[in-house]
Amino acid sequence: MRSFIIIVFSLILLLGCGGRSKKSSSTKFTYTLKTEKDTLTEKEQERQKELYEFLIGDTLPEETDGTFDDFIYSFASNPTLQLKRIIFPLPYYDGDGVVRIKKEEWKHDSLFVNDTFYTLLFDSEKSMDEVDVFSSKSIQLEWYLLDEHKVKRYYFEKINELWFLEAINMREMEKDNEEEFFDFFAQFTSDSIFQAQRIKQPLDFVTIDPDDEFSILETQLESGQWFAFKPPLPKGRLFNINYGQEVNDFSKHKIVVLRGIGNGFFNALFFANNGGKWKLYKFEDTSI
């Protein structure tokens, strides 16, 4: 109840004042940020839904979006649709502050659609296999900015079967005393000598059987063969769509999936941290 009152009060202030405002702390303005620690009751969630519908007004089209994957490509490539699917003023959280972006201030964000492929991150093969792209109601897009050591998150909510961007959050990546995966990956993709040193020998390799396209071939790559088979690697940043799978910055295992846009390209890189050092131990290429 208290959070709902704060929401309504904040809306009254926004509607009355109109301009962009800055606050010293984001803790009082987190009504749009859903996390795994969200403890809203069903009644409060229903009230938030009603509030969103009030914000959106009568601009809702009759059709629905289908899956998030169907929606996000249109959202990123169509400036008109993008403006309709953002709840303005859009909260942009950066550290302890928040700026609310008005519609006329928004600049089109093409996300990943100008690239030939995008990436997905997982902590285990189990989480990769259990991704549910159909029932998710809250999804986060993430840009891991490797050079800046920051992560930029876009929060999307499904309201009345339609997807809307409701907040953006920029924060520092978490750190610990061991070699961090994102620091490792930045060097792995930009330094071929370092890359060669951080590949398990022999490297497990999974691909489509050239003699039977319906069969999977599990084999190994000997020293040096990786460079003949390796896919194009993203440099400087990593993209991720979080459908609800757990992504722990301190996990000892990481899977980087490379998925083509409008083509059958599919690769997966499997990394593990043993003895404080990250290494690539398996490579999968099942492109069609």
Q: How would you describe this protein?
A:
The chain is of the alpha+beta class and 288 residues long. The protein folds into two domains: 152 residues, no CATH class; 105 residues, Nuclear Transport Factor 2, Chain: A, CATH 3.10.450. It has eight helices and 13 strands. Helix 1 runs parallel beside helix 2. It is globular, with a radius of gyration of 21 Å. The N and C termini lie far apart (52 Å). The relative contact order is 0.15. The N terminus is likely disordered.
Shape: globular
List how many beta strands DSSP finds: 13
Question: Stretches where pLDDT falls below 50 for ≥5 residues?
Answer: 1-40
Q: What is the helix/strand order?
A: HEHHHEEEHEEEHHEEHEEEE
* Cα gyration radius (Å): 21 Å
How far apart are the first and last residues' alpha carbons, in Å?
52 Å
Lateral arrangement of strands in the main beta sheet: 1-3-2-7-6-5-10
Total count of helical runs of at least 4 residues: 8
Q: What number of domains? A: 2
Keywords:
alpha+beta; 288 residues; single chain
In short:
With 288 residues, the protein is an alpha+beta fold. It is built from eight helices and 13 strands.
SSE order and pairing:
Layout: H1 2-17, E1 22-23, H2 42-56, H3 68-77, H4 79-84, E2 90-94, E3 97-101, E4 117-122, H5 125-129, E5 138-145, E6 150-159, E7 162-172, H6 181-190, H7 192-197, E8 199-209, E9 212-221, H8 226-229, E10 237-242, E11 253-260, E12 266-274, E13 277-285
Parallel strand pairs: 2-7, 8-13
Antiparallel strand pairs: 1-3, 2-3, 4-11, 5-6, 5-10, 6-7, 8-9, 11-12, 12-13
